[in-house]
Amino acid sequence: MISLSKMAVWIPEEFEDAAYIAKEAGLPEFVVEEKMGIKKKCRAKKNVNTSTMAINAAKEVLKDIDPNSIDMIIWTGSEFKDHPVWSAGIYVQEQIGAYNAWAFDLSARCSSNVVGLKVAKAMMEQDSSLKRVLLCGGHKTGELVNYKDESSRFLYNLSDGGAAILLERGDFNPLLESSVITDGAFSKDVIIPAGGTVMPWSDKAEDYCLTCPDIAGMRVRLAERSIDNFLKVIKGAATASMPNQPIDYLSLLHMKKSAHDEILSRLELEQEQSIYLNEYGHFGAPDQVLSLGLAEEFLKPGSHVVLASAGIGYTWSAISLRWDQKTFSLIKGDRNE
Q1: What is the C-alpha separation between 206 and 193, in angstroms, rounded?
Q2: Model-level pTM?
Q3: Using the 8-state DSSP alphabet, how is residue 67 labeled?
Q4: Residues 6+ apart with CB under 8 A from 297
């Protein structure tokens, strides 16, 4: 079996709260806090790079482990990295001293951790030389939010942090089955206009922020497909993994509260079976790691856990695991800043 051995999340001490976001966006505070579901969200200092947050989380995971025992590193963080056209995973390899590993970057937007777990599990099952695999990534997508852009309001929750997951061979916390759906109809609905081949350079700062060129059309398509696709991947992973045991805990990304509640309701889950991350924001891929880590205080051995996410593009993804023992560390603050 391929098991989730250890995991960690690093978050900064700094944050933006609902009052600040409401002022910047020209919105009533209750809209930000109640409808968008943001009491506050984590924001890193200007001098903290995307890779730094991943490295901080990775070092916590490897605190009692020889980094030279790592066979492979998969970057599952943001594409908004320290530099454009740059391999963050290889940099992490050097910084943590994992000289025996090889590394690569995987990108599926906010589904990168779930898709990364699926890929890592398959690779480890196929290649017996891969005994320890580290997935890690940082996110500083809070920098990409333009509070003056009404089309991107659903992205106002984007926050900063890093996560790391260590996979090993064992019979505790085993990764089970997964399910992924992609839909190219959304592929150009959320973009950063400048910095690519379409518009290499721009004099406008807002062209380097996330925006939605066709927000009206995107809303229609999301209303038609998003919740149903979430349910398909969650049910698909869960049924294939533990068909005789219902989901005990759903580790879900941060989204607006009404959507979160609808998913729980349609899965016949109670509110306490999924922690709503309204005091953290939406990191991207680390959301599921944080949610599961916060839930470890009340999970029982043998619990059926599903990690589920969606990444702009769009990618809906879910993977099941059987939770047997605690694995989580949460680090706040100034390490290596």
Answers
A1: 9
A2: 0.96
A3: G
A4: none
